[in-house]
Amino acid sequence: MPSDAATFLTLPRELRNTIYLHIFSSSSSDPKPCCTSEQQPLLNHDDDNDDETEPSPPTDPQKPSTTTTHHHHHPLHILLTCKQIHTEASLLALSQTPFHLPSRASDPLTFTHLTIPLRTIQLQSLRHLTLTARINALRALNETWCSLPFGCPDLKLEKLTIVPLRPDCFARTAYAEVADLSQSHTLAYIFAETLKGLRNVRCFEVVRRGKKPGGGGGEGAGVGFSAGVWRIVYRSLVYRMWKWGGDVCGARFEVGGEEEKEDGEEEGGGWFRVYLQQGQGCCEGAEGVGDEENVPGKEVGEEVMRLAGGEMPDPNAGVGP
User: Fold this and answer.
1) Where are stretches of biased composition, namely Polar residues (predicted)?
2) Which of 5, 141, 146, 219 is 20 to 30 A from residue 190's alpha carbon, by CA?
3) Percent of the chain with pLDDT over 70
């Protein structure tokens, strides 16, 4: 007698879960920051294109976007196979997939509106969100978030990525350099004030988009900061956190992508990460969280000394390393 052919759904549930995990996590295993063009937009259907940071049309957050897949297979397509696969794999997919948010989502009320289609358990499954915005929108981080990512108590993020953009008004004027320097200190202030009390986030990542439009990954016409201004942002942030919390303040710093090409051109992949530890940020749901020996990066005191060339600066001097 011919035996019934084996199918995917006849496999044990544990094995299916292992396969799902392999499919969904394959795109997020690279330690380098992934570009926003490879991420899924998290938008409600009734929203218009909001700004220069997100020109792609609105997309159902529970379905894969057809605008970002191009010619390669996207892991979320498996959720469209059948109802059973969607039911048993959708939460795992949400937890393993980076989602990109437009500038206006920095406002907690707007974020709530954009995520109306998601149930509470789906919001709780999200682990990696990316926000691309100019400074006027990023002010919401320390002014209206109330120490919670997007002001949402249901979010428990492994990583929150911020992609700051330069303001267009001074981009092509003689005041561009002065404006950039002013914006760099504003950015450092926003990030420092946000990190002092941020909860439910394990890793706070900031990624530099290249100075050329669209450079450094991601869609949209927004322009990022130069490498020189970027270094000022990072150094100012580290110094502010050191003055606030001392050598050990519950946050560890990691920086990368600072290389420049031999011909002097800037790379568009600069980034830094702040790992929030016990007493600040999310302490569950990730390997190594809660175990200080496994947390990447350097304590703020170590990083200040590195930036200062090995000599600890005077905290009362009023200037950074």
Assistant:
1) 26-40
2) 219
3) 65
